[in-house]
Amino acid sequence: MSRYVPEDVETKWQRIWEEGGHFHVEADPSRPKYYVLEMFPYPSGRIHMGHVRNYSIGDVVARFKRMEGHNVLHPMGWDAFGMPAENAAIKNKLHPAAWTISNIDSMRVQLQRLGYSYDWRREIATCHPGYYVHEQRFFLKFLEKGLVYRKHSPQNWCETCGTVLANEQVIDGCCWRCDQLVVQKDLEQWFLRITDYAEELLADLDKLVGGWPERVLTMQRNWIGKSVGAEITFPLAAPLGGTDGADGITVFTTRPDTLFGATFMSLAAEHPLVASLIAGKPQEAAVTAFVDKVRNLDRIVRSADDLEKEGVFTGAYCVNPATGREIPIYVANFVLMGYGTGAVMAVPAHDQRDFEFARKYDLPMQVVIQPEGATLNAASLEAAYVDPGVLVASGEFSGMQNEAAKSAIIDWLDGSGRGKKSINYRLRDWNISRQRYWGAPIPVIYCEKCGIVPVPDVDLPVELPRDLALMPDGRSPLPHAPSFTDVACPLCGGKARRETDTLDTFFESSWYFARYASAREQDRPFDPAELAYWLPVDQYIGGIEHAILHLLYSRFFVKALRDCGLIAFDEPFANLLTQGMVIKDGSKMSKSKGNVVDPDLMIGKYGADTVRVFILFAAPPEKDLEWSDTGIEGASRFLSRLWRLATEELAGLLTPVAPCATAESLGLDGLPPLFAELRRREHATAAKAGADIRERFQFNTAIAAAMELVNFLYANVEALRAEPKGAKAVSSAVGTLLAVLSPIAPHICEELWQSLGHKTLLIEQPWPAHDPSALVTDTVDIVVQVCGKLRGKISVARDASNADVERAALAEVNVVKHIEGKTIRKVIVVPGKLVNVVAN
RNA sequence: GCCGGGAUGGCGGAAUUGGUAGACGCAGCGGACUCAAAAUCCGCCGGUCGCAAGGCCUUGGGGGUUCGAGUCCCCCUCCCGGUACCA
Predict the structure, then answer these.
(1) How far is the CA of A677 from the C1' of B9 (A)?
(2) Less packed terminus of chain A by CB within 10 Å, N or C?
(3) Burial of A669 (0-12, 13-18, 19+ CB in 10 A)
(4) What is the CATH number of domain A135-193+429-503?
(5) What are the residue boundaries of the Methionyl/Leucyl tRNA synthetase domain, all occurrences included (predicted)?
């Protein structure tokens, strides 16, 4: 047989699988379905090792589940809108569409070279009008339902990208994509009411426990940031009260039990009441200066590690609704307009931040909660007391436990309209407007007379014009293209202007997983029957970096589309696997570090199967994987060994026998014990690799198990060849080896399977069903400990009684030495495993 | 600060329910083959003492539970990830 030439083997089988349509899949209610999905890539031009890892993991799962008899949906597509296309287009004088499509074409070839078992008939590209027309309809449906709205407010603005960002897309005060510092800019934008779903998004995380990594659930919980407390209104003190339409300042607090200790009020610099509070007061100039300073320093300093707490008195007072006392109103740099109401009732005795602030500005402090067995004194307090205790100086509530006092005080306030129970979320509504060209147009029209008018369904999709030249500064050309913007109002026929913002690209990725179920459906986004069969995704696989952004948006979208009657499930991804990064020399691969390993080069040098084996063998999926040039040599060596084993060492011996064939059919009787041992190892390999893949996604140990079987076969080649009657047993073992490795290294296994004389394809074989009784041996090795220390090993019959095992253990030579002159206190026998002799 | 996760040979990692620590691979060392090299095959490969049999030590550090702890409990150190004035 010929030398192992990966390229020949791989192109051969890729062609056969492709021509046979072997990975095409149709819904079949008579069979159990399995939907495995890897996060689709942005078509940047070349795949990188992170993709190879992600898609290799997914492909093993897909191929394995097929072998286990599932009807497996395993699709691939392209997250094809986004800024890199615009940048590249400007640089290379190419249209973003042309750049994107050519990238998709070359990346598809790369993926196909790796032998991934996708149903390519379902391929989607989000920049295709046939895709985004559906999300334009979603948008209009959301608009109709009030789930999407327009709002004017300060927005996160990235100067480099020339567009706004959602809160989730601001990382450490910088743009998630380009790391540019984000600034605030007043703009009117489209928002999606994700906050309407905050409670469900939080509660349903419990349904994902067990299926999703705990840390992703925690990150989402923290991001949603639910706080239970109260909204309490502090009336403004005369002469301000009621004079300017503002009755008071409403705060959100999680500690209504400390209300009697609120001795001043802190407002955010951006709080709308600040201007009217200071108007005409001596403090006006100082406050204005402070507000300007805080707002200008904004993000930069506010994101600094420990910004000094500062504030300034407004000259105005409000009234603590519990004590009736007037308290001063401050503007403070640590109060955020974006959380709660932008106003905080300050309780310095029981909040560390307020404590520091009060000490700095010499503000009064009132202890209202006393710990058990101690008496706090405001004057001598060294830090805020934040733990539970009993209320004091709190009117009728004095003497209550503080936890009970929370609801008691809320009820008391509620009775007189001064406050109410309130739940606050950290989660903000999702800003979906982007001032970019290469995205899906937002399908509305602004009419001078009629206002905001949805684009009528017959006019959908609003296609992104492809004949526009990009602006050299990277700004969107859409607002400057009359052919796009100038339209007649669909309602009155009058002069109107088309919306020129496009949708955040996370809009596309929030529903693509459902589109695969019926990717070519034209008039509607989904075929309900297909959706009902395939969704939700059984196993989703991707990087941890999407723990919040994409995964939260997708969860929200599913719920929103469900409430629009378009889908009928609650959560998109039943199980989530977050794979670690591929690193080199200790850090993430990047051009600037010059440590990038190109998958294509590796495939060219070693073949796709070797690349797959290495990337799956080097680390378990959740951990970061250090790329190793010698490590991939090892993977290559292993496949060559496998090849030589089947084509040289055991040549002439191998026949088309079913993997894990029955003992009777192999005719083991009368053969040397080696053959029974081979069969035991064959079945153990199938059992171990199956469990590792099925239950733990632990491909590294599955591969290790296969390597052990290969090593065993090599070690016994001579003896195996010497017994022609054992040929069937050897063939069964080799067949099992190939079947077990086939999800991981599909091409070489298919080729060797054929070389065994099989007429069927290996990809159509079931996973080898091991016979549990084949794993049982006549004798078992037992380790013998004396006082917990290993002193010897004995071999006993599998069904030996504990007494027999104990007797044998105590007779072991080295054990005898160690118990000599001692009294045996106790003997512990763990059947089949171990004996521990306790003696002193 | 808070919340997760982690620390095992020279390296990547294994040990699934508390039961032989170091599977498998990489690197290294020795040998066979070869004029030689590559490739391949065989052997060794945590530290330490010992001719050997075998002993002692060893899973970041310290304590504990247990016949027995990498695994469970408590304390500490360090590393990684997330998050951070959230009222």
Answers:
(1) 31
(2) C
(3) exposed
(4) 3.40.50.620
(5) 36-179
Question: Distance between CA A620 and CA A643 in Å, rounded?
Answer: 25
| Per-residue pLDDT reduced to its tens digit, A764-787 | 999 999 999 988 888 888 899 988
Task: Give dist(CA A547, CA A568) in Å, integer.
Answer: 24
Answer CATH for A779-839 from 3.10.20.590, 3.40.50.2000, 3.90.320.10, 2.40.50.140: 3.10.20.590
ipTM above 0.90, yes or no: yes
Q: Give bridge partners of residue A783 from the DSSP assignment.
A: A793, A834
Segment among A445-459, A480-494, A696-710, A818-832 with least mean pLDDT: A818-832
Which nt is closest to the CA of A301, judged by C1'?
Answer: B85
Are A750 and A761 in contact, with CB atoms under 8 Å apart? yes
* Domain A226-425 in CATH 3.90.740.10: yes
A566 by Cβ neighbours in 10 Å (0-12 / 13-18 / 19+) ranks as buried
End-to-end CA distance of chain A: 65
Fold designation for A6-126+506-588: Rossmann fold (3.40.50)
> Taking 80 as the threshold, does the pLDDT of residue A50 lie above it?
yes
> Where are the domain boundaries for CATH 1.10.730.10 in chain A?
628-775
Q: CA–CA separation, A773 vs A680, rounded Å?
A: 9
The boundaries of every CATH 3.90.740.10 domain in chain A are 226-425
Q: Which of A674, A601, A616, A610 is nearest to A642 (CA)?
A: A610
Please state the φ and ψ torsions of residue A169, each to the nearest 5 degrees: -95, 5
List strand B contacts in A 198-227 (CB < 7 A). Answer: 214-215, 218-219, 222-223, 225, 227
- Tell me the pLDDT of chain A averaged across its residues: 91
Quickly tell me which residue has 């979320």 as its tokens: A425
As to burial, measured by CB atoms within 10 angstroms (0-12 exposed, 13-18 middle, 19+ buried), residue A372 is: exposed
Residue A298 sits at φ, ψ, to 5 deg, of 10, -135
Q: Is the CB of A826 under 7 A from strand B?
A: yes
**CA–C1' gap, A290 and B76, in angstroms:** 45
Q: Report phi then psi at A64, rounded to 5.
A: -65, -45
Q: Is residue A489 a contact partner of residue A496, using CB atoms and an 8 Å limit?
A: yes
- Nucleotide B2: closest residue by CA–C1': A222
**Chain B bases near protein Cβ (<7 Å):** 3-5, 11-16, 19-21, 23-27, 39-43, 53-56, 67-69, 81-87
**Neighbour order of strands in the sheet with A779-786:** A789-797, A779-786, A834-839, A824-830
Amino acid letter for position A667: G
Protein residue at shortest CA distance from C1' of B42: A715
Q: Which residue is closest to B39 in terms of CA–C1' distance? A: A637
Asked whether A693 and A743 are in contact (CB, 8 A), the reply is yes
For A779, how many CA atoms within 13 A lie in the half-sphere containing its CB?
Answer: 8
- Of A664 and A286, more confident: A286
Any idea how long chain A is?
840
